[in-house]
User: Fold this.
Amino acid sequence: MNAELDPASDTHATADTGVPIRFRVYRRKAGDRGGHFDEFTIEVAPDTTVLDALVAIRTRLDPTLVLRHSCFHASCGTCGLRVNDAEVMGCVTKVLELGTSTVKVEPIANEALVSDLATDMVDFYARLAAIGRPLIRDSEWLADSIEPAGIESYNRFESCIECGLCISACPVVATDSRYLGPAALAAAERAVAEPRGLDPNFVLDLADDPQAAWRCHAAFECTEACPSAVDPAGAIMALRRRAASRRLRSLFGWRKP
Amino acid sequence: MSEQSVGRTAPERRADGASTRRRGIVGWGDPRGRRLGGFAFILNRLTGLGVLLYLSFHLVVLSLLARGPSAWDGFVSLAGSPLFLCFDVVLIFGLLFHGLNGIRVTLVGFGLVVDRQRAMLVALMVIGAIVLLIASVHILTVG
Assistant:
């Protein structure tokens, strides 16, 4: 499929003096045996992001294009994509800064596909839940904080925006569905580093596993791909140090196994 | 994996039929979008396989000793050929990369210099390149 957008008819993403860019967009619907790429040409302005362009394509050229987005400012983590073979957030990636006249857009890899560019994050959240992430979320409000007048309570934010880019970039997840993966392990390190009164050994037990922290091969692609400076690879290495230290202490009888 | 295995929560193909676009082993060989650590991962795999093949070949060659001097002398003359010496250079590259990158992976695996791992990789590769250059000149000129 090839389609072109008349820039005068679009009010959201393009400019009258825009630069024509060809988008090769991955398409695959439920039941399709395989995927293919459709091409769309639209004019983009200097500030047009990949997400802007995709919304324009869906609005003006092909309403059947399925994509996922919400906040448009890299907070919700829902528009993670592979653009020109690299993991990015579509909402903060400017098309012209990619420097290519053709832009290839694919869904993130290594997650179940819903349709076109939308992936199902159920497995992603299941991994987070398995390592005790809800334990952190349940204590989102600081119990002992003293709030100034007019503020009900402090909100505690995690850096991870749960976009799945680290899962898409990880070469180990690419071949091993049993691997816990960088996002969940980064959350595990957060839970161990800040247990909030809970027993961190529960989470460390899960992380100290051949299919968890020890499955990583130190490619650091997750850290490079992360749009939120979570540094999952650094967290995995921290978990390894904790796990190795615990095992050594157990070996010499300094701690019960 | 223990019974608490979290990996079991993420089967390859789910009950609802949704498939996963897993990049697979072919994805390892795809350099597009990869960063320095990704290239190191791929090259570490390739050199690991190469060193494994070399060790197998090495054992076969050593078995020639059991077949007498003529068999061994024949191999020694082959080993001095220019093409074989070039293979030696490739072998040394593989050993150097795998060994030096192994030092990096081991150190960061213990949680050491994690935030400087990229600089460490570059430094180790510079050292490896210098050693490879010296070794190559020696092999190809002295033999």
Observations:
- The beta strands of chain A are 2-4, 19-27, 36-44, 80-83, 86-89, 102-107, 112-115, 118-120.
